[in-house]
Amino acid sequence: MAVDIANPTEEHLMLREMVREWTKEHVEPQALEFDRDEKFNVDLLRSMGELGLLGISAQEDYGGAALDAVACTMIHEELSASDPGFALAYLAHSMLFVNNLAYNGNEEQKERILPKVCSGEWIGAMAMSEPDAGTDVLGLSTTAIEQADGSWLLNGRKMWITNGCLDELGTPADVVWVYARTGADEKGRVQMSTFLVEAGMVGYSVGQKIYDKTGMRASNTAELVFDDCIVPAANLVGGVGESLIHMMGNLELERLTLAGMALGIARRSLEEMNRYAAERTAFGSQIRDFGQIQRHIGEGWAKYRAMRAYVYDTANHLTIGKAGQRLDSDGVKLFATTAAKEIADSAMQVMGGYGYVGEYNVERLWRDAKLLEIGGGTLESHQKNITRDLLKNSDAITR
Ligand SMILES: Cc1cc2nc3c(=O)[nH]c(=O)nc-3n(C[C@H](O)[C@H](O)[C@H](O)COP(=O)(O)OP(=O)(O)OC[C@H]3O[C@@H](n4cnc5c(N)ncnc54)[C@H](O)[C@@H]3O)c2cc1C
């Protein structure tokens, strides 16, 4: 029997159809405006709580849907085919915050916070990057020092935080998953611990909303400031020094779903150029009759199909909450993000001047695609990880 790896079960197919319909009705009509105005449609994101999509991978006991990596990936693909900026805000909330808490938080933290983030009452973010440390995660300078009463004092700045602020007034994310330096281990290596910082905690504020991004302008990106921020003992996640465990498992799902977003961009770009090439005539023929246009469409199709196969093959093999799929989560993001950028570029080329303006969509997809080569790990970091992993695990090549 033929297997559809993008929709392996009836439940997956129904989920895809539901998200596709909802996206067409609610996401597509607002995409151009929110990109142009550099605004985040926070109400639309909150409304996804009613559909059960905000806690897609979280356990049902806390308001989640307990679905798998394929489900997570397809939601990102569908949203991104209309509005990658909005999809990025969804990813920061549902994958970087909700999923992290669902798989790494303790019972008390999950009971207290997960229902709020699954319903959309609270919007979450994840703060790893800093002004002076991105790829070099261990170079972070935000510190957390334990106080006599067991609480923690956080000091430092986090940079590029998606959903870090919710509006133009600088309203901070309701809750942030923050990585901070808490000392060094016995070998002198940086020790990182994870904290849940909630809006209203003393010393937590938005430094600035970052404007004028190339793309992903429908998501808010912010600098967050922790200035003698007091975090209660109950908001330390796991044990002291356990951040690497949290980071590694969650990064794999993040990279896969970013690749899912790339797939959405590629699919939409292909759709747009295919339609346009039939509508547009030049020199008495449809432009799709020209060999040079056929190259864009033909190569775009083949790349799109290869991306789709690799994205969903990786999704079908990834068990959420378990590390160990880094080779393919890095591999698929490395391949799919650049492919999406190339296909969006082809679409713009095929559409000529029309492709270069917002109304025709591919201009926005083209700008948004570039971020996927940087955020969640740069292309170079994926190349480094893959090369390192293949040294230890060369059998992966012949398996
Ligand atoms: C729109 C947007 C949204 C984001 N959202 C979030 C978020 O929600 N949370 C969060 O924590 N972060 C977020 N980020 C930050 C993002 O993850 C970082 O930008 C990314 O990890 C790269 O870090 P950097 O910008 O500091 O670049 P750097 O790490 O300084 O890299 C600069 C260049 O050097 C290269 N380089 C660095 N080290 C090596 C090496 N060892 N070998 C080869 N080349 C190397 C890089 O690949 C890159 O080309 C976001 C960024 C953007 C732009």
How would you describe this protein?
This protein is of the alpha+beta class and 399 residues long. It folds into 3 domains: 10-119, Acyl-CoA dehydrogenase/oxidase, N-terminal domain (Butyryl-Coa Dehydrogenase, subunit A, domain 1); 124-243, Butyryl-CoA Dehydrogenase, subunit A, domain 2, CATH 2.40.110.10; 244-398, Butyryl-CoA Dehydrogenase, subunit A, domain 3, CATH 1.20.140. The protein contains 12 helices and 10 strands. Helix 4 (84-104) runs antiparallel to helix 5 (107-119), helix 4 (84-104) packs antiparallel against helix 6 (243-279) and helix 6 (243-279) runs antiparallel to helix 10 (362-371). The longest helix has 37 residues, at 243-279. It is globular and about 80 Å long. 51% of the residues are buried. The structure holds flavin-adenine dinucleotide (FAD). The site of flavin-adenine dinucleotide has 23 residues, from strand 1, strand 3 and helix 11.
